[in-house]
Amino acid sequence: MASGFRILPRARKVDAAMAERFSRLPVANVSDSMSRMTAGGARLRPMHAGGVLAGPALTVKARPGDNLMIHKAIGLAEPGDVIVVDAGGDLTNALMGEMMLMQMIRRGVGGIVLNGAIRDSAYIRGQSFPVFAAGVTHRGPYKDGPGEINVPVAIDGMVIAPGDLVLGDDDGLLAVPFDELESVLAKAQAKFEAEQKQMANIEAGTHDAAWVDATLRRLGCEGLD
Questions:
Q1: Residue 133, by phi and psi: left (phi above 0), alpha (psi -120 to 50) or beta?
Q2: Strand partners, 152
Q3: What pLDDT digit, counting tens, does each position of 45-56 carry?
Q4: Rounded mean pLDDT of 138-164?
Q5: In this predicted structure, what is the pLDDT of residue 99?
Q6: Which burial class, exposed, middle or buried, applies to 122 when counting CB atoms under 10 A from its CB (0-12, 13-18, 19+)?
Q7: 113-130: per-residue pLDDT in tens?
Q8: Phi/psi of residue 37, each to 5°?
Q9: How many CB atoms lie within 10 A of CB 76?
Q10: Which of 108, 125, 202, 208 has an alpha carbon 20 to 30 Å from 94's alpha carbon atom?
Q11: What is the pLDDT of residues 69-123, one digit of tens each?
């Protein structure tokens, strides 16, 4: 099988129950629980009306400006899957528009992430179907290949393997490796609960900010009272 133009099976994927549990948490809390070392880059922004993205990755490596393998991925996608496309971040040609979006909605796809551009942005912006992309252009795609499906891809240094959990909200995108789901979920839940208590203290006027001066002293800051 030739590298660069192939379709591979997906050996495993996060289940719907785990994805749903993560969907209740802010992406920022999950990110903090992964030592703030993983991110899909600030360019990838939500293009839809609003709503959380959470589901297993169906990965696509596409030639910049070409969406042949994205069409194939839509046909392979199972309900709840998130199609994650590494198209090199090129914004010259749009990789999808309203017709492909309609197909994904019809198939029950959970969302799409494009390291590339979309078109028909007004239509996409009016839908709740999660679409994250790097930009918008009216110029359409080519359909010649090559490309790969269900191979590891990387977006701005974030590696996504087939079946990994992909999360997205208004703050951006994050992928959680399949083998780390349980540990990250436990840490993220604890972080979320701690922040809820902190916000309650702020509201009540009992927030303790003594750590700020303590940190400044530890770091040798001059001029403290």
A1: beta
A2: none
A3: 999 999 899 999
A4: 97
A5: 97
A6: exposed
A7: 999 999 999 999 999 999
A8: -105, 0
A9: 16
A10: 108
A11: 999 999 999 999 999 999 999 999 999 999 999 999 999 999 999 999 999 999 9
Please report the pLDDT score of residue 1 as a whole number. Answer: 58
pLDDT band at residue 3 using 50, 70 and 90 as cut-offs: confident
For residue 60 the two structure tokens come to: 């696509």
C-beta contacts of 2-7 below 8 A and 24+ residues apart:
3/148, 4/146, 4/147, 4/148, 5/145, 5/146, 5/147, 5/148, 6/148, 6/149, 6/151, 7/72, 7/76, 7/148, 7/149, 7/150
Average pLDDT over residues 136-159: 97
- The count of other CB atoms within 10 Å of the CB of residue 86 is 23
Distance CA 72, CA 69 (A): 5
213's tokens: 């001066």
Supply the DSSP string of the chain, one letter for each residue: --TTEEE--------HHHHHHHHTS-HHHHHHHTTT-----TT-EE-SSS--EEEEEEEEEE-TTB-HHHHHHHHHPPTT-EEEEE-TT--SSEEE-HHHHHHHHHHT--EEEEEEEES-HHHHHT--S-EEEEEE-SPPPB----EEESS-EEETTEEE-TT-EEEEETTEEEEE-GGGHHHHHHHHHHHHHHHHHHHHHHHHT----HHHHHHHHHTT-S---
